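Quality-control log, excerpt.
Job 1 of 2 completed; input and output follow.
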Amino acid sequence: MEPLSLEARVRRLEDEREIARTLYRYAAWLDYGPAELLEDIFTPDGRWTRAPGRRGTRSFIGHRGFAEMFRDHTHAPDFFHKHAVMNPVVDVDGAEARAVSYLVFICEHPDGPYIRAFSRCTDQLRRGDDGRWRIAQRTAELEAWADRDFPPGPWKSLPDIVE
């Protein structure tokens, strides 16, 4: 196999960096908004799914689903919390990519901050006609959840599938 050209290697590094930035934006915009920025992280037909496991399965589909996802979640300044993306591993194949990362949900509490949840996230991404990478499918494997009363848990008022 012939080695990649310098141009191809730089393009791959730029793609990997932009994909990581997409994952970081998802976390920041879920915490602070606005909703339109969170929606734009996903393709118009995008899907977010919590895999079966620690809590029930849940899916948000399309921009309307992501608007509801955002609306029914807590945000600053009413509640301060952080979704922290860690260890993204990105594989790019042309205009498609796969990323695996960890997401840690850190919340405020009257007794002090605590880790509410952590997940392993697998994302399928596509590069749009505008050159931006967006999530086409996110699968969140919730590995731990702390049932605490503060802040209120997200999405309790929504059905399991929101489109």
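Job 2 of 2 completed; input and output follow.
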Amino acid sequence: MILDVFSRYVVGWMVAPRESAALAERLIAATCAIQGIEPDQLTLHADRGSSMRSKPVALLLADLGVVKTLKYCPAFPDRFGSLEDARAFGQVFFPWYNDAHHHSALGYLTPAMVHYGIADGVRAQRTIVLAAAYAAHPERFVRGVPQPAPLPTAVWINPPVIGRAVPEAAGTAHVTAADLRDHSLPIPIQLTEAVQ
């Protein structure tokens, strides 16, 4: 799985019988081509094998709410019966996660709304709806006019230590909303070919 860390959007994923450099290269190349990623534009963070069992990746996905979302998805099985079952699940799960799941860390927007730059418009519409609700029933809002939940302004893979002289140490990625402008893609890439 390739995840846009800022928007939590799954831009590419693959289910294969085993990990391999060749499969990873295909997934990365195809995802970059579809997303319009130019050379030297992308920072890719990955562990060094045994990806889903590694503590750094597991913690990152937990911090981003992906593991929890997958774990608490009612349709997620304890085990998949076959490789084809896992692929079929991914073909349903990832579109739901990207386009229908309203993520708490994204101000209850979907990853797609943030990834494709429509979050500000959605938040503006929510502001109008909330103001109308307040005008119609101010007694329901003891704290005044409600506001949409805020969007994150930055996402850190390795957050800096408060008071540290150099905030971006080696191995640290800092992604801001400005880094995500002008991305437009209708669907994420899904590579599901089996390699013999």
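Post-run check on job 2. Residues 51-57, 166-177, 179-196 have pLDDT under 50 and may be disordered.
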